[in-house]
Amino acid sequence: MKAIADSILSGILLGSLYGLFASGLSLVFGVMRLVNVAHGDFIVLCAFLALAIQHVTGFGLPFLTLIILVPLMFVFGYLLQRMVLNPALGPDILRPVLITFGLSVIVQNGLLQGFSADSQKLQGGRLETASMPLPDGLAIGAFPLLTLVVAVALIGLLQWVLYTTKIGRALRATSDDLRTAGMMGVNTPHLFGIAAGIAMITIAVAGVFTGIRTSFDASAGPAWLIFAFEAVIIGGLGSLWGTLAGGIILGIAQAIGAHFSPGWQMLAGHVVFLAALIFRPRGLFPRRVE
Amino acid sequence: MLLEVSHVNAFYGDFQALFEVSLQANTAEALAIIGANGAGKSTLLNAIAGNVATKGGSIRFIGDSLSGLKPWNIVTRGVTLVPEGRRLFTSLTVQENLQMGAYARKGTDWTLPKVYELFPRLKERSNQAVTSLSGGEQQMVAIGRALMSNPELLMCDDLSLGLAPVVVQDIYATLGKVRKSGVTLIVVEQNVQQALSFADRVYCLQEGRVTLEGVARELTLEDVSRAYFGRRGAA
Amino acid sequence: MSAGLKMRRVAQSSKLSRAAGMIAVVIVLALVSAAGWGDRGLLSLLMEFFCYLALAQMWNLLAGFAGIVSLGQQAFLGLGGYALFFAALRLGWNPLEAFLLAGLAGAVVAIPGALVVFRLQGAYLAIGTWVVAEVLRLIFSQVAMLGAGSGISLPVAFAKSVKMAGLPRDAVLYLAALALALATIFASYMLLRSQRGLALTAIRDNELGARSSGVNSFTVKLMVFAATGLGTGLTGALLYLAKLRISPAAAFDVNWTSYMIFMVVIGGVGTLEGPIAGTLVYFVLRQYLADMGSWYLIILGVVAVTVMLRLPMGIWGTAARKYDLSLFPTRRRVVFEEVTVAQQDRSRVPETTAH
């Protein structure tokens, strides 16, 4: 069944993007037990910012905007964490959820105010339509393939940072035991800021790639948050590769759903998510202790 | 005087755990803090390490005040705590745990090779998950981790918790070596005999107050039980 | 000769709450009478106010009592609305029957919804509820019989048939909304006054609502979730009965939750008075910010975030804590008083107020 194989293939490619969405969410939750409800809205924000940067600098290729966007979002993430989110953290789970939800409302409506409700899209040029032929008459889009490569590379880079660098060690140690990490010399508020900044880098990349792949508007954030969230739950908390796998499974589910009817794309993904939640609440690749 | 704690009060919310506690430690001394459960021994060490807020009084280390400093800044001054219950980083390997000790402050006295020399068993297990280690080995990792910050003052909270007597002996023997290298030690110890035999000087706390201070060799068991249990006298 | 005895009496009401109680009765009576003399505009506004108040109280019950932060209450709102429209359009039922169906739909969907979503904790639970709402939105966008994506209108005859005791439609809807709001306040009050409520209040006095969930029992959480599902369904039915038209994008809009959160947080989570204060603030702000488009929501968001960071107990919560206020008598306090017992009557036991 060529059509199904096609769907699965495009699902994998789409899913890698979802895995990228989810990696930032996963990292931040692992280190500081914080779920940023505005996560999706920040991805949209980056897509809009890329548009704005292109407008100002005249960059032809959207990827070039990352040169500015990555350091900018890192600093933004760091400052947001230290000034707004660190004070919200504590034993009460209510506050961070509500505060980040408030941020979501602010960002969405700010974008609406600043960019109007019109749908936008980043232009990827020839890369968007190019495709590479595969055996059996299948073809693979060059841009989705690039997305897969970048997603895997970025997650691989994150893993490398976590497992070989000093700061990665500190991130993992802080995730295990916040208080003791502080006792060993880790400036935890600062480290949280760094983690948030790193997450913002994944968000910036995700924003640009998603903006090229599909059209977006100010209210697209919640849908993307939900995809990221579903990827994390399907894959299991605590593992970046698991999150990537979760994203890919979600992507495949959506692609197969879309194959039957466009209206079914999202629903198919949600159904798979709910099934995972019912039958495998800890996810497919959960970490031992959480 | 290396460490001078002077009339310090500590609170957990509204509950006062330390009342006007004073303590001094001289360079290369070994101090023991004894007392019943809940007497405030852990609280005192945590107050010095910056984990518990203090009101009034002062904590001075080599002349500089430690009051109000964050724990990560206190470590860089040369004061490190081996926390109660060991509190190792469970998703890190033995070696990674040790490396975390040197996160903020490194030195030449205690490097990874030197810590492995002190605890040869850990070298064999350097890439294992710490959760697979025995209680005694975990305690070694905790001490080694603290040593990696090259402290001038090392504080140990209840090392013998949950460990067999033989293992405890081992650990105190190793601590003796650490002491010889010039590190000042303050240990909180439940076992009074152990405390008296290891330390130069002893402080006894009862319900947040210092009830006894003296040279270990010169203290009688009667002195100690009176201070330990309070007005009601020896049990 | 007499002996002074110190008696301890456990009292739940204070002077303030007793005074407030009497004022409240007067206010409620005045409100009910408004059905008779209020004009359309006023009744319509008040109806909306009480619907929003009910929503706020229910969200507060979930978050402050059961420790569940729901970002998906719009699921029940839309469900209730659509149930009403379905009953009107396809089943030919009368308004009352349709209204009850809405509540039933909310309760019935809440139960399996809870079983799925309760597998998650904290923030993940919150997003899970959002996913459920999104799923419903998508499903209803596909149902052609109910207008699919573009929505559907209520038949005029049905709307016209909303009458009761000679009162016109606006008055009936208004009284229904008032009844709903009072019911939610009453239900919250009864729950807080009970044994469990005692534990909750004691802890809550020291920290924010969600952590104070001394109610860990799964069944209690499930019951609260189902009850708020029912109530929110009824409220949704009422709101859309008034609007006369429903669509998935509007009925399942997550901004319903934004408003609920705003009202509860500004007022103070976990208190009974908080949501009332918060709803008042919301409506006042809405009057002034109505023509500002997106700025309106931006300002709401900024105010909410700022209040949460600086005044985590909300406006009422902070004032109540500072001045030891409580309008609703839910806190039990020990009252010491001197009682004299005449020597001859020592056999008589002084009366105590049992609680």
Q: Can you describe this structure?
A:
The complex is a heterotrimer of chains A (290), B (235) and C (355). Chain A is mostly helical. Helix content of chain A is 75%, strand content 2%. Chain A has a two-stranded antiparallel ribbon. The longest helix of chain A has 31 residues, at 2-32. In chain B, helix 3 (94-101) packs parallel to helix 6 (135-147). Chain B is an alpha/beta fold. Chain B has one domain: 3-Layer(aba) Sandwich (Rossmann fold). Chain B has nine helices and eleven strands. In chain B, the strands form two sheets. In chain B, strands 7-8-9-3-10-11 form a six-stranded mixed beta sheet, sandwiched between helices. Chain C has helices at residues 15-37, 40-65, 74-91, 95-117, 122-142, 156-160, 169-193, 195-204, 218-243, 248-251, 255-267, 273-289, 294-310, 314-323, and strands at 2-11, 152-153, 245-246, 333-342. In chain C, strands 1-4 form a two-stranded antiparallel ribbon. A two-stranded antiparallel sheet of chain C has the order 2-3. Chain C has one domain (12-343). Helices cover 67% and strands 7% of the residues of chain C. Chain C has 355 residues and is mainly alpha-helical. Chain C starts with a strand and ends in a 13-residue tail after the last strand. In chain C, helix 2 (40-65) crosses helix 11 (255-267) and helix 4 packs antiparallel against helix 9 (218-243). Chain C is built from 14 helices and four strands. Classes of the chains: A mainly alpha (290), B alpha/beta (235), C mainly alpha (355). Chains in contact: A-B, A-C. The interface between A and C is large, with 41 and 46 residues.
Which key phrases capture this entry?
heterotrimer; A: 290 residues; mainly alpha; ABC transporter involved in vitamin B12 uptake, BtuC; two-stranded antiparallel ribbon; globular; C: 355 residues; 14 helices; 67% helix; disordered C terminus
How many helices of chain B?
9
Number of helical stretches of at least 4 residues of chain A: 12
Strand content of chain B: 25-35%
* CATH architectural name of chain A: Orthogonal Bundle
> What sequence of helices (H) and strands (E) makes up the elements of chain B?
EEEHEEEHEHHHHEHEHEEH
User: How many extended strands of chain A?
Assistant: 2
User: Termini separation of chain B (Å)?
Assistant: 36 Å
* Topology pattern of chain A, helix = H, strand = E: HHHHHEEHHHHHHH
How does the overall form of chain B come out from the CA principal axes? globular
The CATH class of chain A turns out to be Mainly Alpha
CATH topology of chain B: Rossmann fold
Please name the fourth-level CATH homologous superfamily of chain B. P-loop containing nucleotide triphosphate hydrolases
Order of strands, widest sheet of chain A: 1-2
**Strand order, sheet with most strands of chain B:** 7-8-9-3-10-11
Mean of all residue-level pLDDT scores of chain A? 89
> How many domains, in number, for the residues of chain B?
1
